[in-house]
Automatic annotation (TrEMBL):
SMART domains: DnaJ. Residues 81-102 have a biased composition (Pro residues). It comes from the Eukaryota. The lineage of its organism: Eukaryota, Fungi, Dikarya, Ascomycota, Pezizomycotina. Residues 334-367, 375-386 have a biased composition (Basic and acidic residues). Coiled coil: none annotated. Residues 77-105, 251-277, 290-316, 334-386 are annotated as: Disordered. PANTHER family: DNAJ HOMOLOG SUBFAMILY C MEMBER 21 (PTHR44029). PROSITE patterns: DNAJ_1 (PS00636), DNAJ_2 (PS50076). This is J domain-containing protein. Residues 9-74 form the J domain.
Length: 438
């Protein structure tokens, strides 16, 4: 199996524990990818390398097979804690002095440190490969030892089983039932015992040889680990020196970037102020137009209300004139009805007197088509034929209306043509419908 060619602490890169679940790995990767993307860190010259390292860590730990191989060599990788991002210093006002480029001495020192770090990485990687081979040999040796131990245990159990069977055949139970062992079975049992003893000797010798090999492998692994630790210590020291040199170079580069950013910020601020002023004027114009529209709408509403009130007054005047005209017509009708009633009563009185005179003389009155009917007959038929258009006489107050059967606090009226009594409301209904008693 090929060794894992990594020297970085991927768990520290993803800011997780070694026993973290897949969902935790994915969540931390998404969060850190958004924060460490090179587009969001233009001032960090190592942003691309950090982002690539983050992607490598995620691709390794997200795959179970690669993570298993990585965990096998994880304890030989120097453990690091995630470095907190430095807080950006407050921006200084732009200076007219142009930024100074990094000196050739600084660049040469950085390149030399990078070369040394690359050499140390290669040496550590080679040692890790050799150590991985020894680890693989150790695993194979452990498997062989386990296999030998299992074979010895199996032989012991077989010998114990044969001994128990031999004891059972030699007891009194076998004597009672006469279960004698055949010669073939006896030879087979002895042959198995011989084979077990031979195999046991071979397995014990093999186990001893494997244990000696395991001791040598463990000694070589310890030597590799010690050399790797020394090289990593040297690498850390060189890395510190390289970071110091890079930090100085970055500081010089950041000066120019900060000045340029300050100029861009000033220009952006001026543009935002101009944009805000344009929007303010536009908003004021919109507000003025809306105010004028609101005034026009209010004026229209006021005019519409005045027009509506004038129309209502006109309709009220028309209704009042109509009621006056109806009252005049009603008064004329009542006068005509009163005159007709007086004439009718006079005719009835004349007929009654004539009837009395005829009765006194013993003569029966003859009925003709043109003669008036008797009062009794008229009263019987009047309720059905009366249209209640005639005169209604006012009667006693505070009575129950015989039409709606409600208590009437006003006067009760009686139709003189049919003797129907009703309250004012029912009287108006009877006049309009022309029906009789209900």
């Amino acid at each position: 199996m090929a060794p894992v060619q990594v020297t970085d602490d991927y768990y520290a890169v993803l800011e997780i524990n070694q026993d973290a679940k897949i969902d935790v790995i994915k969540a931390n990767y998404k969060r850190l990818a958004r924060a460490r993307h090179p587009d969001k860190n233009p001032g960090n010259p190592n942003a691309t390398a950090e982002f690539q390292l983050l992607q490598a860590a995620y691709s390794t730990l997200n795959d179970e097979a690669q993570r298993s191989d990585y965990d096998r060599y994880y304890r030989y990788i120097p453990k690091t804690k995630p470095q907190p991002r430095p807080t950006p210093a407050p921006q200084k006002p732009p200076s007219s002095t142009p930024p100074q480029p990094p000196s050739s001495t600084d660049l040469a020192e950085i390149e030399a440190l990078k070369t040394l770090a690359s050499t140390l990485d290669k040496s550590i990687f080679d040692l890790q490969g050799k150590k991985a081979q020894e680890d693989s040999l150790r695993i194979d040796t452990m498997r062989a030892l386990t296999k030998c131990a299992a074979a010895l245990e199996r032989m012991r159990l077989e010998a114990l089983k044969d001994a128990q069977e031999e004891a059972a055949r030699s007891g009194w139970f076998a004597y009672i039932y006469a279960t004698a062992e055949t010669e073939e079975r006896k030879e087979a049992r002895q042959r198995r015992a011989t084979e077990r003893n031979t195999g046991k000797m071979v397995r014990e010798a093999e186990e001893k040889k494997l244990r000696v090999r395991m001791e040598g492998i463990q000694a070589r692994i310890s030597g590799f680990e010690e050399r790797i630790a020394q090289m990593r210590k040297q690498k850390r020291e060189e890395e510190i020196r390289k970071r110091e040199a890079e930090r100085e170079e970055i500081m010089k580069r950041n000066e120019a970037r900060k000045r340029e950013e300050a100029r861009r910020e000033d220009r952006k601020k001026r543009e935002e102020e101009e944009h805000g002023e344009r929007w303010r004027r536009y908003y004021e114009e919109i507000c003025r137009q809306e105010e004028e529209k609101e005034k026009c709408r209010a004026e229209g509403v006021r005019r519409e209300a005045e027009k509506k009130r004038a129309e209502e007054v006109r309709r009220e005047m028309e209704m009042r004139d109509l009621k006056i005209q109806q009252a005049i017509l009603e008064a004329d009708r009542l006068r005509r009805e009163a005159a007709e009633e007086s004439a009718r009563k006079a005719a009835e009185e004349s007929a009654r007197k004539a009837a009395e005179e005829s009765a006194a003389k013993g003569a029966e009155p003859r009925e003709t088509n043109g003669a008036p009917r008797q009062p009794a007959e008229r009263s019987r038929e009047s309720n059905q034929d009366c249209e209640h258009k005639g005169w209604w006489e006012k009667e006693a107050d505070c009575q129950v209306c015989p039409q709606c059967h409600r208590y009437n606090k006003w006067a009760t009226f009686r139709c003189r043509d049919c003797d129907v009594r009703a309250c004012p409301k029912c009287r108006d209904v009877l006049r309009g419908s022309g029906t009789g008693d209900s």
